[in-house]
Protein backbone atom coordinates (compact mmCIF):
# COMPACT_ATOMS: atom_id res chain seq x y z
CA UNK A 1 0.00 0.00 0.00
CA UNK A 2 1.07 3.57 -0.62
CA UNK A 3 0.27 6.24 1.93
CA UNK A 4 0.04 10.00 2.03
CA UNK A 5 -0.22 12.51 4.81
CA UNK A 6 -2.33 15.54 5.60
CA UNK A 7 -0.99 18.09 8.05
CA UNK A 8 -2.85 17.75 11.32
CA UNK A 9 -3.85 14.11 10.86
CA UNK A 10 -1.40 11.95 12.75
CA UNK A 11 -2.12 8.76 10.81
CA UNK A 12 -0.96 7.39 7.46
CA UNK A 13 -3.72 7.77 4.87
CA UNK A 14 -3.91 5.04 2.24
CA UNK A 15 -3.89 6.25 -1.36
CA UNK A 16 -6.84 3.94 -1.98
CA UNK A 17 -9.88 4.95 0.06
CA UNK A 18 -12.55 2.30 0.54
CA UNK A 19 -16.11 3.36 -0.19
CA UNK A 20 -18.70 2.08 2.27
CA UNK A 21 -22.01 2.72 0.52
CA UNK A 22 -22.49 -1.01 -0.09
CA UNK A 23 -22.38 -1.94 3.63
CA UNK A 24 -25.68 -3.07 5.12
CA UNK A 25 -26.97 -4.47 8.41
CA UNK A 26 -28.88 -7.11 6.44
CA UNK A 27 -25.50 -8.53 5.42
CA UNK A 28 -23.47 -7.55 8.46
CA UNK A 29 -21.29 -10.67 8.46
CA UNK A 30 -20.39 -10.09 4.80
CA UNK A 31 -19.80 -6.39 5.51
CA UNK A 32 -17.41 -7.17 8.37
CA UNK A 33 -15.50 -9.72 6.27
CA UNK A 34 -15.12 -7.17 3.48
CA UNK A 35 -13.90 -4.48 5.88
CA UNK A 36 -11.47 -6.96 7.45
CA UNK A 37 -10.03 -7.90 4.06
CA UNK A 38 -9.68 -4.29 3.00
CA UNK A 39 -8.06 -3.25 6.28
CA UNK A 40 -5.70 -6.24 6.35
CA UNK A 41 -4.48 -5.20 2.89
CA UNK A 42 -3.36 -1.86 4.27
CA UNK A 43 -6.29 0.40 3.47
CA UNK A 44 -6.69 2.79 6.40
CA UNK A 45 -9.08 5.38 4.92
CA UNK A 46 -12.83 4.90 4.54
CA UNK A 47 -15.29 7.13 2.70
CA UNK A 48 -18.70 7.54 4.29
CA UNK A 49 -21.72 9.78 3.90
CA UNK A 50 -24.59 10.79 6.17
CA UNK A 51 -27.03 10.28 3.29
CA UNK A 52 -25.88 6.77 2.35
CA UNK A 53 -28.24 3.90 3.08
CA UNK A 54 -30.25 5.74 5.70
CA UNK A 55 -27.17 5.75 7.91
CA UNK A 56 -26.64 1.98 7.80
CA UNK A 57 -23.08 2.09 6.36
CA UNK A 58 -21.99 4.47 9.13
CA UNK A 59 -23.50 2.20 11.78
CA UNK A 60 -21.74 -0.81 10.29
CA UNK A 61 -18.43 1.09 10.32
CA UNK A 62 -19.01 2.04 13.93
CA UNK A 63 -19.74 -1.50 15.07
CA UNK A 64 -16.80 -2.85 13.09
CA UNK A 65 -14.32 -0.32 14.54
CA UNK A 66 -15.61 -1.01 18.04
CA UNK A 67 -15.30 -4.79 17.68
CA UNK A 68 -11.85 -4.59 16.07
CA UNK A 69 -10.55 -1.88 18.41
CA UNK A 70 -8.89 -0.03 15.54
CA UNK A 71 -10.42 3.46 15.67
CA UNK A 72 -7.05 5.08 16.37
CA UNK A 73 -5.67 3.64 13.11
CA UNK A 74 -8.68 4.28 10.85
CA UNK A 75 -9.08 7.53 8.92
CA UNK A 76 -12.76 8.41 8.55
CA UNK A 77 -13.81 10.67 5.69
CA UNK A 78 -17.32 11.83 6.60
CA UNK A 79 -19.74 13.81 4.45
CA UNK A 80 -22.80 15.81 5.45
CA UNK A 81 -25.20 18.60 4.47
CA UNK A 82 -26.40 16.94 1.27
CA UNK A 83 -29.51 18.65 -0.06
CA UNK A 84 -32.82 16.80 -0.03
CA UNK A 85 -36.03 17.02 -2.04
CA UNK A 86 -37.46 19.62 0.30
CA UNK A 87 -34.72 22.19 0.85
CA UNK A 88 -31.12 23.28 0.59
CA UNK A 89 -29.10 22.04 3.55
CA UNK A 90 -25.78 23.90 3.68
CA UNK A 91 -26.80 25.60 6.91
CA UNK A 92 -25.42 25.74 10.45
CA UNK A 93 -28.34 23.64 11.67
CA UNK A 94 -27.98 20.90 9.06
CA UNK A 95 -24.18 20.71 9.17
CA UNK A 96 -24.35 20.32 12.95
CA UNK A 97 -27.24 17.84 12.90
CA UNK A 98 -25.62 15.61 10.27
CA UNK A 99 -22.28 15.68 12.06
CA UNK A 100 -23.85 14.66 15.36
CA UNK A 101 -25.85 11.89 13.67
CA UNK A 102 -22.67 10.51 12.13
CA UNK A 103 -20.71 10.68 15.38
CA UNK A 104 -23.46 8.69 17.09
CA UNK A 105 -23.63 6.13 14.30
CA UNK A 106 -19.85 5.66 14.32
CA UNK A 107 -19.81 5.55 18.14
CA UNK A 108 -16.86 7.97 18.10
CA UNK A 109 -16.19 11.48 19.38
CA UNK A 110 -14.47 12.84 16.26
CA UNK A 111 -14.26 12.38 12.49
CA UNK A 112 -10.81 12.75 10.93
CA UNK A 113 -11.89 14.56 7.76
CA UNK A 114 -15.33 16.10 7.39
CA UNK A 115 -16.48 17.50 4.06
CA UNK A 116 -19.71 19.09 2.94
CA UNK A 117 -21.35 16.75 0.43
CA UNK A 118 -22.73 19.62 -1.64
CA UNK A 119 -22.29 23.39 -1.91
CA UNK A 120 -24.89 26.12 -2.02
CA UNK A 121 -23.32 29.06 -3.85
CA UNK A 122 -26.17 31.30 -2.69
CA UNK A 123 -24.86 30.98 0.88
CA UNK A 124 -21.85 33.17 1.78
CA UNK A 125 -18.78 31.13 2.64
CA UNK A 126 -18.18 32.92 5.95
CA UNK A 127 -20.89 31.24 8.05
CA UNK A 128 -20.02 27.86 6.52
CA UNK A 129 -16.35 28.17 7.45
CA UNK A 130 -17.32 29.39 10.91
CA UNK A 131 -19.63 26.50 11.79
CA UNK A 132 -17.06 23.95 10.63
CA UNK A 133 -14.41 25.68 12.71
CA UNK A 134 -16.71 25.62 15.73
CA UNK A 135 -16.73 21.83 15.47
CA UNK A 136 -12.96 21.73 14.97
CA UNK A 137 -12.54 23.73 18.17
CA UNK A 138 -14.89 21.33 19.95
CA UNK A 139 -12.69 18.39 18.90
CA UNK A 140 -15.38 16.79 16.74
CA UNK A 141 -13.62 17.29 13.38
CA UNK A 142 -9.96 17.01 12.41
CA UNK A 143 -9.81 18.61 8.96
CA UNK A 144 -12.52 20.09 6.74
CA UNK A 145 -13.23 20.27 3.03
CA UNK A 146 -15.80 20.25 0.27
CA UNK A 147 -17.19 17.44 -1.85
CA UNK A 148 -18.54 18.76 -5.15
CA UNK A 149 -17.29 22.25 -4.42
CA UNK A 150 -15.74 24.26 -7.22
CA UNK A 151 -12.12 25.27 -6.74
CA UNK A 152 -13.23 28.91 -6.91
CA UNK A 153 -15.53 28.45 -3.90
CA UNK A 154 -12.78 26.61 -2.05
CA UNK A 155 -10.43 29.51 -2.71
CA UNK A 156 -13.11 31.91 -1.48
CA UNK A 157 -13.63 29.88 1.69
CA UNK A 158 -9.92 29.71 2.36
CA UNK A 159 -9.44 33.43 1.82
CA UNK A 160 -12.14 34.01 4.45
CA UNK A 161 -10.49 31.53 6.81
CA UNK A 162 -7.10 33.21 6.42
CA UNK A 163 -8.53 36.69 6.98
CA UNK A 164 -10.29 35.55 10.14
CA UNK A 165 -7.68 33.26 11.68
CA UNK A 166 -9.70 30.10 11.03
CA UNK A 167 -8.86 26.64 9.72
CA UNK A 168 -9.19 26.46 5.91
CA UNK A 169 -10.58 23.74 3.71
CA UNK A 170 -7.77 21.18 3.67
CA UNK A 171 -9.19 18.73 1.11
CA UNK A 172 -11.47 18.58 -1.91
CA UNK A 173 -13.54 15.66 -3.17
CA UNK A 174 -14.60 16.06 -6.82
CA UNK A 175 -15.18 13.44 -9.46
CA UNK A 176 -12.17 12.42 -11.49
CA UNK A 177 -11.68 9.58 -13.96
CA UNK A 178 -10.48 8.96 -17.49
CA UNK A 179 -14.06 9.37 -18.73
CA UNK A 180 -15.42 12.79 -19.55
CA UNK A 181 -18.89 13.50 -18.15
CA UNK A 182 -21.46 14.53 -20.76
CA UNK A 183 -23.64 15.69 -17.88
CA UNK A 184 -23.52 15.27 -14.09
CA UNK A 185 -24.76 11.80 -13.08
CA UNK A 186 -26.43 13.38 -10.05
CA UNK A 187 -27.48 16.95 -9.40
CA UNK A 188 -24.85 19.53 -8.52
CA UNK A 189 -21.84 17.25 -8.88
CA UNK A 190 -18.43 18.72 -9.65
CA UNK A 191 -15.96 16.93 -11.92
CA UNK A 192 -12.39 17.81 -12.82
CA UNK A 193 -12.30 15.29 -15.68
CA UNK A 194 -12.16 16.13 -19.36
CA UNK A 195 -10.33 18.70 -21.48
CA UNK A 196 -12.55 21.58 -20.37
CA UNK A 197 -11.28 21.14 -16.80
CA UNK A 198 -7.57 21.13 -17.64
CA UNK A 199 -7.18 24.53 -15.98
CA UNK A 200 -8.80 23.27 -12.79
CA UNK A 201 -6.43 20.31 -12.70
CA UNK A 202 -3.52 22.73 -13.15
CA UNK A 203 -4.71 24.64 -10.08
CA UNK A 204 -4.86 21.44 -8.05
CA UNK A 205 -1.46 20.39 -9.35
CA UNK A 206 0.09 23.67 -8.26
CA UNK A 207 -1.63 23.76 -4.88
CA UNK A 208 -1.23 20.01 -4.21
CA UNK A 209 -4.43 20.14 -2.18
CA UNK A 210 -5.36 16.54 -1.29
CA UNK A 211 -8.04 15.24 -3.64
CA UNK A 212 -10.39 12.44 -2.56
CA UNK A 213 -11.67 11.65 -6.04
CA UNK A 214 -14.87 9.67 -6.51
CA UNK A 215 -16.05 7.34 -9.32
CA UNK A 216 -12.51 6.49 -10.38
CA UNK A 217 -13.83 3.96 -12.92
CA UNK A 218 -16.70 6.23 -14.02
CA UNK A 219 -19.46 4.52 -12.07
CA UNK A 220 -18.78 1.19 -13.73
CA UNK A 221 -18.11 2.41 -17.28
CA UNK A 222 -14.57 1.00 -16.93
CA UNK A 223 -15.65 -1.99 -14.85
CA UNK A 224 -14.90 -4.45 -17.64
CA UNK A 225 -18.56 -5.47 -17.84
CA UNK A 226 -19.34 -2.94 -20.55
CA UNK A 227 -17.88 -2.90 -24.06
CA UNK A 228 -18.76 -1.17 -27.29
CA UNK A 229 -19.93 -4.53 -28.65
CA UNK A 230 -22.21 -5.56 -25.77
CA UNK A 231 -23.59 -2.14 -24.83
CA UNK A 232 -27.15 -2.82 -25.99
CA UNK A 233 -27.19 -6.15 -24.14
CA UNK A 234 -25.87 -4.95 -20.77
CA UNK A 235 -27.00 -1.32 -20.55
CA UNK A 236 -29.97 -2.30 -18.36
CA UNK A 237 -27.43 -3.28 -15.67
CA UNK A 238 -26.37 0.36 -15.36
CA UNK A 239 -28.48 3.19 -13.99
CA UNK A 240 -29.82 5.67 -16.49
CA UNK A 241 -27.88 8.58 -15.00
CA UNK A 242 -24.57 6.80 -15.60
CA UNK A 243 -25.49 6.00 -19.19
CA UNK A 244 -26.31 9.65 -19.86
CA UNK A 245 -23.13 10.80 -18.14
CA UNK A 246 -20.58 8.41 -19.60
CA UNK A 247 -21.82 6.52 -22.66
CA UNK A 248 -20.57 8.94 -25.31
CA UNK A 249 -18.59 8.34 -28.51
CA UNK A 250 -15.41 9.84 -27.03
CA UNK A 251 -15.67 7.72 -23.90
CA UNK A 252 -16.18 4.57 -25.94
CA UNK A 253 -13.02 5.52 -27.85
CA UNK A 254 -11.25 5.82 -24.49
CA UNK A 255 -12.66 2.45 -23.46
CA UNK A 256 -11.33 0.86 -26.66
CA UNK A 257 -7.86 2.15 -25.82
CA UNK A 258 -8.09 1.02 -22.20
CA UNK A 259 -8.99 -2.47 -23.40
CA UNK A 260 -6.04 -2.47 -25.80
CA UNK A 261 -3.52 -1.30 -23.20
CA UNK A 262 -4.91 -3.72 -20.62
CA UNK A 263 -4.40 -6.61 -23.04
CA UNK A 264 -0.84 -5.47 -23.79
CA UNK A 265 0.06 -5.25 -20.09
CA UNK A 266 -1.82 -8.30 -18.86
CA UNK A 267 -4.15 -6.17 -16.76
CA UNK A 268 -7.89 -5.67 -16.47
CA UNK A 269 -9.90 -2.71 -17.74
CA UNK A 270 -10.60 -1.31 -14.24
CA UNK A 271 -6.93 -1.67 -13.31
CA UNK A 272 -5.82 0.49 -16.24
CA UNK A 273 -8.57 3.05 -15.60
CA UNK A 274 -7.57 3.32 -11.94
CA UNK A 275 -3.89 3.51 -12.85
CA UNK A 276 -4.70 6.50 -15.06
CA UNK A 277 -6.15 8.31 -12.03
CA UNK A 278 -3.29 7.43 -9.69
CA UNK A 279 -0.57 8.41 -12.17
CA UNK A 280 -1.70 12.03 -12.36
CA UNK A 281 0.61 14.78 -11.02
CA UNK A 282 -2.06 15.46 -8.40
CA UNK A 283 -2.25 14.68 -4.68
CA UNK A 284 -4.89 12.01 -5.20
CA UNK A 285 -6.49 9.61 -2.77
CA UNK A 286 -8.77 7.54 -5.02
CA UNK A 287 -12.13 6.35 -3.74
CA UNK A 288 -12.77 2.74 -4.77
CA UNK A 289 -15.71 0.47 -4.08
CA UNK A 290 -14.35 -3.07 -3.96
CA UNK A 291 -17.10 -5.54 -3.16
CA UNK A 292 -14.85 -8.54 -2.58
CA UNK A 293 -11.33 -9.30 -1.34
CA UNK A 294 -10.46 -10.24 -4.93
CA UNK A 295 -11.48 -6.81 -6.23
CA UNK A 296 -9.49 -5.19 -3.45
CA UNK A 297 -6.39 -7.21 -4.34
CA UNK A 298 -6.76 -6.27 -8.01
CA UNK A 299 -6.85 -2.59 -7.06
CA UNK A 300 -3.75 -2.97 -4.90
CA UNK A 301 -1.79 -4.54 -7.73
CA UNK A 302 -1.81 -1.37 -9.80
CA UNK A 303 -0.33 0.87 -7.11
CA UNK A 304 3.13 0.03 -8.41
CA UNK A 305 2.14 0.49 -12.06
CA UNK A 306 3.68 3.53 -13.73
CA UNK A 307 2.04 4.74 -16.91
CA UNK A 308 4.15 6.91 -19.19
CA UNK A 309 2.94 10.37 -20.15
CA UNK A 310 2.62 9.09 -23.71
CA UNK A 311 0.34 6.27 -22.54
CA UNK A 312 -1.80 8.64 -20.51
CA UNK A 313 -2.13 11.11 -23.38
CA UNK A 314 -3.08 8.26 -25.70
CA UNK A 315 -5.70 6.90 -23.29
CA UNK A 316 -7.27 10.35 -23.03
CA UNK A 317 -7.42 10.81 -26.83
CA UNK A 318 -4.84 13.60 -26.73
CA UNK A 319 -2.68 11.76 -29.29
UniProtKB/TrEMBL annotation:
Claim: Oxidoreductase is one of the keywords in the record: yes
GO cellular component terms, A-Z: cytosol
Keyword Cell membrane: no
CDD domains given in the database record: AKR_AKR10A1_2
Molecular-function GO terms, alphabetical: oxidoreductase activity
Signal peptide: none
Keywords, comma-separated and alphabetical: Oxidoreductase
Domain called NADP-dependent oxidoreductase: residue spans: 16-315
Protein name: NADP-dependent oxidoreductase domain-containing protein
Organism of origin: marine metagenome
Classification lineage: unclassified sequences, metagenomes, ecological metagenomes
